[in-house]
Amino acid sequence: MSRISLIIPSVGRPESLRRALAAAQRLQPPAHEVIVVARKDDEKTLAVASQFDASVVTVERPGLAWAMRAGAVAASGEVVAFTDDDAEVHPDWSARLLRHYEDGSVGGVGGRDLIDADLEGVQEATATSAMTARIGRSGRVVGDHHLAVGAAREVDHLKGVNCSFRREPFLRVDIVDALAGSGAQARNDFLYSLGVAAQGYRLVLDPEVLVDHHPAPRLSGDDRAASVEKVFEAAFNERLGFRFFRREGSLRNALFLAVIGYPHAPGLARLARGARLRLVTSTLHGIAAANRIRSPQRNEGTVNSPSLAIVPSCETFEDHFSALGVTAGDLANGRYRGTWITQYAELLRSRGTDVTLVVPGATPARLKGSLMDVWVVPVLPLRRVIPPRLRRWKLRELLSYLQGRRLARDVQGFDRVYAQEYAYPRFGGLMSELPDDKLIGAHHGTPVAAAPRWLVQRIARGSNLLTTLTKQERESVRSVRSGSTVDRVVWAPNWVSDTFINSEEERVAGSAIWVGRFDERVKGLDTLLRAWEDSATSGWTLTMVGTGPDHDRIRNRVEASANLRDRVTLTGRIDDPSQLAGLVARAEVFVNASVKEGLPIAVLEAMGAGTKLVLSDLPYVRSELAEASAEAFPPGDVTGLLEALARAFDRPLNDDTNRALIRHQFSITSAGTRVADLLQGREYQG
Questions:
Q1: CATH fold for the domain made of 503-666
Q2: 343 and 307 in contact (C-beta within 8 Å)?
Q3: Using CA atoms, how far apart are residues 334 and 330, in angstroms rounded to an integer?
Q4: In CATH, what number does 307-491 get?
Q5: What does the pLDDT look like over 604-622, one tens digit per residue?
């Protein structure tokens, strides 16, 4: 269970603070700590805080955003929760907040504020389950948190009087020097929300997370009435949120603010409804001023050396990682481990190299994580204009090439760039912009012969270091090289962590396991399930681990089939290596029915765990695994798969042949060291 630090910024309202602290004492479970952030010279506020045994953080700098950050810096809980000094949290507030953080993808949770007891009747009558706390298609920021009813839902932003965030991603949103205003700082909670969401986390609004809100008078000079200064502040800070953290809809937001706006920041159209010209002018000045700010999301400066950027082959973040249910935060913080990218990042960081994943996406963001950084950079604008069904032949190749040239600008500051699949035109775009000694290519299974002729010729002439997963692939790539450049094509296989090699579990006879991405185009899932249906009398069981675009279809097929329903289990994604290693080590057989693939990490992990193998006969089986103990069958052949399964289940349970091969060729100390030497620029030996 996460610990919650409750932070209450307060200035000049001791009686309100007294009620807020009294309510905090009634929380169940109690907050790990209660922190009051106050001005250093605010003696009355400090006195009230001491009466309730609250921790006190004093600040000299004015501004609510600064106070929130100062409180979070001092906090020791994993979750920092905020409320105002004129609000009273309900007793179950902490319990309802914390239950949402059991989901690791959630980075912020907020709720509803019941505004003044004498208005509750009106508020309940107008409360709605319609859109609240979202950014509309017009670019308008919709609040109405106080009117939200119904089930918890994912939202775009939270309200400062009733919000919480995971502490680490919250502290990475450093906005205090950019915000306008020195008091309540309109939209500061909006920026903090967008900043956490930009790191790949989800924000949740739960209307059952309640506080009673009694809006109290603010200090002189910081009242709630519209003024030139307050209008400028509101418009400037809202635009800043889009500029820094949310490119999607940014232009629409600028147009909405300028043309329509809000009562507290009126746009041009509100002149016809009686808005004062000087306030409209202030809105426009705020927009213009924010548009001149250079976003730290795009201008972070140079990357600390030594550094490596990994550019995967997927066209966008959404079409690969999002399809797996994986967020940028999952990757950055190592919560998702089902990819070679996190494996590489873990190894290289242990050897002193910083790793950043760079991939195009619809929602640009830059995250700093405990495992690696993740940069989701803008997709080429032409890709948004041209529908996928029209991207054919030369046009598709051209778009890929241009995307590569654009990516080159994003990775210029890195010492080395490792780009997957140089059989794609995007690699040609990177090659045209980056020095030869900076760019390294990774070949993970795409046939080189399928690449555009011009790209194959370019690869043949280039002197960049190229890597392959298998020895068979290495010979294929060498066939398009000549002279001394042939030696720059090297074998860099996947490897297995010691978690699998050292796993010791009691085998369950008759059990099989499959691990991978639910994608019929590659994985041969229909072949696997047809074989299991035909073996209904065998008593064999199958556990399928993973997720992907075909997951729901496979689940529905299993549930609808009497021959599968009680014999096939879908676990979903498992990110804990120890849990996955235990499942693989308990299975008698590991089965892989893929129709095309390089050298799957899941197969190597099963070998490391000593689990018997049944594999479709792909090139890596005849090259890398020639010395392994495995039953092979032709890809897509249901009868061949059944025969291979029968042979595997008839063999003795324990066989150390595969585990010995893994230790010798595919462990972290053999294959892993080879890859690290290549990517860190050490001369390749062997």
A1: Rossmann fold (3.40.50)
A2: no
A3: 6
A4: 3.40.50
A5: 999 999 999 999 999 889 8
